Amino acid sequence: MRSAHLHRCSVLTVVVTVLALFAACGRGPGTDGGTPVPDGELRIAPQFSPRSGYAIDTDDPYILTQLGVTEALTSATADGQVRPALAESWTQVDPLTWRFVLRAGVTFHDGTPLTPAAVVTALGHVAGVAAPPRALRGLGLTVVEDGANSVQVATTHPDPILPLRMSSPNAVILAASAYTGGAPSVIGTGTGPMRLTAVEGAQRASLERFDGYWGGRPALARVTTTFVTDPAARALALRAGDVDIAQGLPESSLLEFSAGSGFDEQTVAAPRTVLLLLNQSAAPFSDPRIRQAVARAVDRTALAEQALAGSAIPASELFGPAVAWGAHEPPPAPDIEGAKALLVQAGHGPDNPLPVRLWTYQNRPELPTLATAVQAMLREVGIDAEIRIGEYGTQEPEVLAGRYDMFLLSRSYLTDVPDAGATLRSDYACDGSYNLNHYCSPAFDSLVARLDTATDAGTRQDVFRAAARMLVDDVVGVPLVHSQENGVSRNVVGYTLDPMAKQLVTSQLAVTG
Amino acid sequence: MIIRRLVSLPAAVLVASVLIFLLPRLAGVDTVRAVLRTRVAEAEPDPVVAARVAAELGLDRPLPEQFLRWFGHVLTGDLGLSYATRAPVAPQLTSALGVSAVLTVLALALAAAIGIPAGVHAARRPGGLVDRIVTVTSVLGVAVPEFILAPVLVLLLAVAVPLLPALGWGSPAQAVLPALTLAAFPAALAAQLTRAETADVLSRPHVVLARAKGLTDGVVLWRHAARLALTAVTSLSGLFFAGLLSGAVVVEVVFAVPGLGRLLYDAVLGQDLPMVQAGLLAVVVVAVVAALAAEVLQLALDPVARAAVQR
């Protein structure tokens, strides 16, 4: 079913692109930067639709945060700095406890004030569900009131990034009226600039301005959100004038929205990397010479600029330009002769090519394309990769168990909070729960252990940089490309594409006339 | 005959429900892992949490017990809670069924309104201009898939000439493009079928006799010929109805229509078992009832078939 849909999507994308060239003359005028319309109405088509009925313990709260409906105690910048939101300030009471002072004058959409009791109820609920969300899992989080305007948040073991963790969309604070048994209701219970007034399943959500917003009167009067799961259909809706902002459009259709088209197109680096994982727990990739040969054989610039037609950025390490601690320099040029020499040292050569299995999945359409290009590059140095494209769900247990050779994976290295500690531990520590490379280095583990006590963002980022360098030196897989996100608007001011998917509708966002 | 069919209905639904219940399980779907991934994307599986979720969903019970519990609840109208939204399935399913039913009826009405007159007129002068136009158009209607027709219609009628909205559901204007897209295939098939049947009927002795008696072309065509041709189209309409109801996935995704196709599509991707099971069961029931209704309608239109049944 999924593969059929993807096939249809790709065909649909091609069809739409070709037809759009013929229909382009029918496009109306309109550019950003016009005069904001007071009390305007905005229509948007975000990239992701709600999948779990806006349940707070799922990934759906990202949508609510993005739409300006809900807020958490803190917010975070993309470079890992934590900022006040519903909490004005915070201090560490002891290694296990933090005190958050609540902002005065905050009102929920139902008219009730923000109180310590409301925070206790909200955080207590999400910490106590059967499957706690990633940002709060395993913390043993408890929250108690601390006077008239603050709360104390405690964990069972020291958590140096707790204030940053509190910026997660899963940790948003809803009014007490949301918690009446069952899943919390998100309609009319948030604190953000827009009040959610109606939801129609996974298809549509309606928002109205919240005049009592603590951050000032929002410019928009209403927002209508239509969740269109098909990227090509989102592009069509934007061109037809049915929506003012659409995100996650097919690369092939972005040309229609380039400069001079009347649309404002934005593309930003996303905190996501396509990795060529190499199973270090078994031959042949337990031999570092063969891993090094693969790293030298792959031309990452060609993959990003030719195979993916410039829709991605070549990767030189795990972290890319989406984050403050990511690498900006280009990857090393391929070294075909060097790769061949390493393979010869390892007992393989032109007459004795190394057969390997290269697995990937097609949930992300760029992966099969990259697999084919990588296969061709490896063949040039004497590695004969047999591609198998399957379903991620069935491949994961095999890969986790170390029963694979090469696996092409798209992985977000920032989930929930702009801090790479969780990814480095789960993906690369000896006892990491998602250590698909089956890499184990005591030196790496002791480096990452410094994160257990480092509260300062700068210190943490130094560790992230050093860890990324160590992964390159040890050839722990090969980072191929960094993904990008895109968004297109027309007749809108104040729209900034957020690669972390936490911000879209703000007090400043307005439509223009 | 109808009573015999009515008796076999529950048996058909029971067999279908067993298959619907068993298929995802026999396919080796790890439901708990899928549910966890739906709740928190890209989460690595944690055995303790997985066991807790399995118990929460009743998936730790033996298979026969799970089936009996599910089917027992279905018989009382309780379709359970969605794994994804944790909200009752029944209201979501009813709402989606309503949307798809409206869309399907609109599409079939459009198909009949376009296809049948086109077929009848084409049959009047085989090889004539009308016949050639209808033949070419209906071949295109059968051949062009929905995922190509949908964007073409949007580009023509929503982008180049901004007459209609490109997406959404709720206003009559928003229903036009999805209904037109869905109507293309049945309209083309109805035109081809009507043309062939009408041409055949027009050459039969009783129609030749009617003409000889001095009846006008119009009366002969519509009273004697087209009515019989309609029976063939009617017999297909039941199948079309059930097919369109559940098969409008592409149309509902492209036009953001909150119908059954989209609901089932999301449910299958999210491996939301209660939703998938209830949706498929609803499709089976609708298909069986629609086939029966089409048969009754065909009998009403075709005296020869009626006589055969009565004998």
Automatic annotation (TrEMBL), chain A:
Signal sequence residues: 1-23
UniProt keyword list: Signal
InterPro entries according to UniProt: Peptide/Ni-bd, SBP_5, SBP_5_dom
SUPFAM superfamilies: Periplasmic binding protein-like II
One Gene Ontology term, aspect cellular component: periplasmic space
GO terms (BP aspect): peptide transport
Protein name listed in UniProt: Peptide/nickel transport system substrate-binding protein
PROSITE patterns in the cross-refs: PROKAR_LIPOPROTEIN
Gene Ontology terms for molecular function: peptide transmembrane transporter activity
Ranges for domain Solute-binding protein family: 81-434
One Pfam family of this chain: SBP_bac_5
TrEMBL record, chain B:
Transmembrane segments: 96-121, 133-163, 175-194, 228-255, 275-301
Keyword Heme: no
Location relative to the cell: Cell membrane
Segments forming domain ABC transmembrane type-1: 97-294
Record InterPro entries: MetI-like, MetI-like_sf
GO cellular component, one term: plasma membrane
Keywords for this protein: Cell membrane, Membrane, Transmembrane, Transmembrane helix, Transport
Segments forming a coiled coil: none
Membrane disposition: Multi-pass membrane protein
One GO term (biological process): transmembrane transport
Entry similarity comment: Belongs to the binding-protein-dependent transport system permease family.
Protein name (Swiss-Prot/TrEMBL): Peptide/nickel transport system permease protein
